[in-house]
Amino acid sequence: MTGAIHTDRLSAFFDRLRSAPSRVLFLDYDGTLAPFQIDRDRAFPYPGVPVLIDRIMENGTRVVFVTGRPVREVLLLSGLRRQPEVWGSHGLERLKPDGSYSVEKVSTEQEAGLTQAQERLRSQGLKNRMELKPGAVALHWRGLEPQEIDKLSDTVRHLWYPLVRQYPLDLLAFDGGLELRVRGKDKSQAVAAILGESNPDSVIAYLGDDRTDEDAFHALRGRGLTVLVRDQPRPTLAEVQLRPPQELIQFFSEWLAAS
User: What is the CATH architecture of 22-99+186-258?
Assistant: First the structure.
């Protein structure tokens, strides 16, 4: 996709945004608003981003985070003054702006499979690379050398593949690791739920970077602008690509001006 096509699509989008009866902005977190970090607890947003998002919310846009992180981590790291809506753990958790919180129950069978996944990682001395969250167990390898990553990936896939066959769980790769999570739950359900609550004439955009965001891009097709936030191109369903942080900040600035 050429730069000219990018410019034309964005210009047309912001023209629609100016006269929109309502606006919805979906945002992934890691890799989109915040650069990846080896220490996940230090994944803070790019400078200037929290202020812009706060102002976008103040001007009436419904901002919805859709992330693989648990809700509590997004609230701790984002640096926002206003509380956004957050769908955490790939949509398993939901925090509304009024503070009400809900989380979908995991079946006894799924819980048993996830418990085994944890135990198998611990048995291989991988506890320090393991992350536990509602409905999922993740294994992180950011910061390792490529050969180490290949070896670790093979090990974890060998440990977890039997669980996928035995329990209603899915094994998925993400940018920086592998995750075993409850089957049939991804970011598209969060997008679909918000679309069902929104004015049909709302102007909507979704910004994401990872393969897990492709489900959301697919769910939004024909209803809004899909944006890949990433330095390097890759195959994607997104209509345009923004390179962080400069083009990301420019996008938020134009959104704010248009609203």
Answer: 3-Layer(aba) Sandwich (3.40)
Average pLDDT along the chain, 259 residues, taken 10 residues at a time: 64 96 97 94 96 97 96 96 94 93 95 97 96 95 96 97 96 92 92 96 97 95 96 94 96 96
Burial of 138 (0-12, 13-18, 19+ CB in 10 A): buried
Place of tokens 């891009």: 217
As a whole number of Å, the end-to-end CA separation of the chain is 27
What are the start-end ranges of the E strands in 61-218? 62-66, 85-88, 93-95, 101-103, 130-133, 136-140, 169-174, 177-182, 203-208
| Tokens (6 digits) for 136 | 């999922």
**pTM across the whole model:** 0.90
Per CATH, which fold does 108-182 belong to?
Answer: Alpha-Beta Plaits (3.30.70)
Backbone angles phi, psi at 246, to 5 degrees: -60, -50
Question: What is the side-by-side order of every strand in the sheet holding 130-133?
Answer: 130-133, 136-140, 177-182, 169-174
